[in-house]
Amino acid sequence: MIINAAQLCELLQGELIGDGEMKIYGPSQIDKGIPGTVTFLANPKYEEYAYSTEASVLIVARDFVPRTPLKASLIKVDNVYGAMMFLVEKFSKNGIPSPGVSNLAQLSSDFVPSTDVSIGAFAVIESDVTLGDRTIVYPHVYIGHGSRIAEDVVIYPGVKIYPNTIIGQRCIIHANAVIGSDGFGYRPDENGRYVKIKHVGKVILEDDVEIGANAVIDRGTLTFTKIGRGSKIDNLVQIAHNVTVGEDTVIAAQAGVAGSSSIGNHARIGGQVGIAGHLQIADRIEIQAQSGVHTGKFPEGSRLFGYPAINYNDYLKSYAVFKQLPEYMKRIAELEKQIAALKGESL
Amino acid sequence: MIINAAQLCELLQGELIGDGEMKIYGPSQIDKGIPGTVTFLANPKYEEYAYSTEASVLIVARDFVPRTPLKASLIKVDNVYGAMMFLVEKFSKNGIPSPGVSNLAQLSSDFVPSTDVSIGAFAVIESDVTLGDRTIVYPHVYIGHGSRIAEDVVIYPGVKIYPNTIIGQRCIIHANAVIGSDGFGYRPDENGRYVKIKHVGKVILEDDVEIGANAVIDRGTLTFTKIGRGSKIDNLVQIAHNVTVGEDTVIAAQAGVAGSSSIGNHARIGGQVGIAGHLQIADRIEIQAQSGVHTGKFPEGSRLFGYPAINYNDYLKSYAVFKQLPEYMKRIAELEKQIAALKGESL
Amino acid sequence: MIINAAQLCELLQGELIGDGEMKIYGPSQIDKGIPGTVTFLANPKYEEYAYSTEASVLIVARDFVPRTPLKASLIKVDNVYGAMMFLVEKFSKNGIPSPGVSNLAQLSSDFVPSTDVSIGAFAVIESDVTLGDRTIVYPHVYIGHGSRIAEDVVIYPGVKIYPNTIIGQRCIIHANAVIGSDGFGYRPDENGRYVKIKHVGKVILEDDVEIGANAVIDRGTLTFTKIGRGSKIDNLVQIAHNVTVGEDTVIAAQAGVAGSSSIGNHARIGGQVGIAGHLQIADRIEIQAQSGVHTGKFPEGSRLFGYPAINYNDYLKSYAVFKQLPEYMKRIAELEKQIAALKGESL
Questions:
Q1: How far is the C-alpha of B193 from the C-alpha of A95, rounded, in Å?
Q2: What average pLDDT is seen over chain A?
């Protein structure tokens, strides 16, 4: 949605003071306004920004009277905050494709489009794939043979889905994520060369899962890798083969979970965390960014930190000492000197 | 391959008990069976799962007699384990494209397809590229000018290969990996602004290399970045410019190797490991996940851990003390008190 | 550019001794020469390599006389180093597309190509997008609605740009990078389920920014994520929503910056570094690879290391003690024993 200030004013049933022709691309914050955006002044304590903001349009209350001239055009409305929420909702629809199947997509001859599905240019859909109603497949998406994708899913440009993947309702998969690649599994032969272990399992994303850009979810070896309902996986995360993630768990950017581990429900895993393979991580575990988890022994609700990870507060206490170690070591040397002296005296 | 239970039974020359129409998408494990899969009961100690599994078809021995009714259809065979191995091999062929060049691919006018090559829709092959026999190029792959790719290579959807890349026989490159991007090299000019260093080298993948999804291998500055025969690189790994990796080395997910380092043969590098630039890492080095390697001084076969990495056992011993540091520091304070007391006495 | 030795010789106005038909794909270093490349001998101390190099062509000074026969063809020139610089510049143009819009690209009906723009096959350009003169859009690139891209920008294959992104002059974006994906923002509802926070902000890349392969820059929530003029972001880096990076800052591979943090000018951030959210990092900060920065309190020009990061030298000093901790702890035990003995004596 790109509209001009006059059209914006009409949408908001407001009163425009200033240039109505200016093109508006989206919203911004009043203290970080940039040309081509609309911002708002709801809280009087930010009034100073109204005079300096680079935003092109400023939404204000009906009774707002500027103390000095403004660079921005004004739109006066009854409810500033409500107007802004309305616009955020509007702009969030920006660039969302309409239903319809591009004639530049490559569809398997057995593919039957469901109601109001959208398939973009240069998407590829292999055989035996089903897509639910209203699901959006952006350009450059690849959906492998036998995959079953439910309703209201959004698959952003460049996502690659290997065969037999199962994706639940309302999942969102961001650009260039890869779902279902082979696990990193090899066995050495008699000469120490690696022989690839076949991966014939699948990936299951339950309902309401979101997967970040450039994240990778490997398929199961024989069975499945599963992300539970409502869990959110950030950009550049690695989920290895046979891993299961519970429900309502969040895993921040660049974290990695090694093969065959399971993570509970309502866990919070920080960025760049590493979780070793074959562990069972309890529910509601909270893991500080960059920690390395080498054991599943921590009980439900634990908060972890460190490398290897221990309890959060224990790590902080030990690290506080770590920072003082050179000084403590001097104290040990001093003690040794004094004891030597005492021993000399006591001879 | 999607077949029904009756067809599956015929493939296995077995005896079907139950519904023959049910569609089967792949295999699963008996304790993690899901509808639409076939599983097997080879070891009697897992018999309890036979009654609870959600798998649609269960392969059992000819003499198996269920104690209570089963949800799954049964296929009785002479050799349960052999039947399952046969099916895993069959299903591993799932979705592999047939030979042939898509008329939706964009091929340079000088391109000559070799025998039984497969090139998918929307693939782009630039000028002066050669592909070996039976090589598979999935949709959305880009192969830059002058690249030479050998026989039996598999390049998954979305892989981007920069110009002049050399790829050996039987290499596998997973979806959205990038091969041959510019190294991260700049020199500051007189005003402290960075000037890009031209990268005109290449990437060489020797035979039997596998590269994970969304991994990146930068090209050499003047010469090459090379991954040695049989080495395996996991998802989201970063290999910087001019790096050489030896033969039969494995590098797990999200690890990174900085510019101009060399890694030996038969090394095992854990996930999220970082290796600094300009190091020479010996053969058969084993590096624990998340470690940071700042020196190449460790001899062949060393096992490393820590940040910076030291010998594995040394790190564990020091870390065991680290966890107790607050208590040890109390002991130092107590010693100081006692010495002060003793000194008082001895005055 | 692939030329034969004779053409190469003509370009350099040199004298060829040897096979003129051999195809040359690029340059190499004399000690790492490979067939199909041209290398050079400028410094006499590397002369031994002239006899062993695998390079096909060797550029030497006019007066060079080999002591023994050479495998490589020779090209004799007046200025060896200048010839090599000339060739590096030539080869760096390798595979760069010519101006022109592919008829296999999908362009919005409102798109107006600018002068000498290049748009590759299977690129998608949505509505309300502008591209500056001489900008290169490789195949498989997606440019979302409302994006404004300036002059002389290079966008490598597979890059995905979400709506409303702003990209300055001479930016370079490497293959499969994602610009403008949603931030990782959710609020828990009354049942502890995560509700997605709408992201309607944008990404701004100022002039002369370079973004590495498979890197991800999330869009702002309401306002913007910004990378300042001349800053360089390496492969697989994560920049979260609302982050601002200053000018002339370098961020090495696999580093991550969490939401709403700001980083100053001329900072140097090592590989795999993690920076927590909502911090303000001063100018000219230098952060050692893999460090975790949890506070913005460090003054301009600080050098940091550790997890959490502290001053570089302090970390090294503490870590030096850390490595000796088991021995120090024995010294504490010994002190305790001696004190006990002394106390026994002094009773």
A1: 36
A2: 94
Tell me which amino acid residue A236 is: L
Mean pLDDT of C103-127: 97
CB contact under 8 A, A322 and B323: no
3-state SS, residue A248: coil
- Chain C partners (3+ C-beta pairs within 8 A): A, B
Strand partners, C310: C305
Distance from CA of C293 to the nearest CA of A (A): 10
Asked if A322 and C322 come within 8 Å (Cβ–Cβ), the reply is yes
Domains and CATH numbers, chain A: 3-91 (3.40.1390.10), 100-314 (2.160.10.10)
User: Which residues does chain A have within 8 Å of residue C316's beta carbon, measured at their own beta carbons?
Assistant: none
Using CB atoms, pick whichever of A214, A322, A339 lies closest to residue C214: A214
| Backbone φ and ψ of C280, nearest 5° | -115, 110
Residue B345 has pLDDT above 80, yes or no: no
Each residue's pLDDT tens digit, C221-264? 988 999 999 999 999 999 999 999 999 999 999 999 999 999 99
Nearest chain B CA: its distance from C223 CA (Å)? 27
Contacts of B158 in chain C (CB under 8 A): 140, 158, 176
pLDDT tens-place string over residues C127-137: 999 999 999 99
Q: Which of B145, B199, B241, B266 is catalytic?
A: B241
Q: Kindly report the nearest CA distance between residue A88 and chain C, in angstroms.
A: 6
SS3 of B132, please? coil
Please state the rounded mean pLDDT for residues B17-28: 89
CA R_g for chain B:
28
ipTM of the complex: 0.93
The answer to whether residues A225 and A217 touch, using CB atoms and an 8 Å cutoff, is yes
CA atoms within 13 A on the CB side of C27: 24
Q: Looking at the annotation, which residues of C are catalytic? A: 241
pLDDT score of B347: 52
B250 CA to centre of own chain: 8
- Optimal mutation site among A84, A254, A338, interface C, most CBs of chain C within 10 A: A254
Q: Give me the helix-helix angle, A312-323 and B312-323, nearest 10°.
A: 100
Answer yes or no: do C253 and B254 touch at CB < 8 A: no
Asked if the Cβ–Cβ distance from A238 to B253 is below 8 Å, we say: yes
Among A279, A264, A222, residue whose Cα is nearest residue B30: A222
**Neighbouring subunits of A (3+ Cβ pairs under 8 A):** B, C
* Tokens 């062949």 -> residue: B300
Q: Is B95 or A117 the better-scoring residue by pLDDT?
A: A117
Distance of CA B1 to the CA centre of its chain: 24
With 0-12 CB in 10 A as exposed, 13-18 as middle and 19+ as buried, what is C292?
Answer: buried
Gap between the Cα atoms of C318 and A325, Å rounded? 5
Write the DSSP assignment of C183-231 as a string of letters. PS-EEE-TTS-EEEPP---EEEE-TT-EE-TT-EEEPPSSSEEEE-TT-
pLDDT tens readout for residues A208-264:
999 999 999 999 998 899 999 999 999 999 999 999 999 999 999 999 999 999 999
User: Whose CA is closest to C259, among C237, C273, C281, C275?
Assistant: C275
- Interface probe with A: pick from B46, B87, B154, B214, most Cβ of A within 10 Å: B214
Q: Subunits that touch chain B (at least 3 Cβ pairs < 8 angstroms)?
A: A, C
Please report, as a single letter, which amino acid is at residue B17: I
Q: Which of A132, B196, B65 is nearest to C152 (CA)?
A: B196
Tell me the pLDDT tens digit for each residue of A25-71. 888 889 888 888 999 998 889 999 999 999 999 999 999 999 998 88
For residue C305 the two structure tokens come to 């290391």
- For chains A and C, what is the number of CB pairs under 8 angstroms? 200
Distance between B325 CA and the closest CA of chain A, angstroms: 5
Q: Tell me which residue in B176, B194, B254 faces C176 most closely, judged by beta carbons.
A: B176
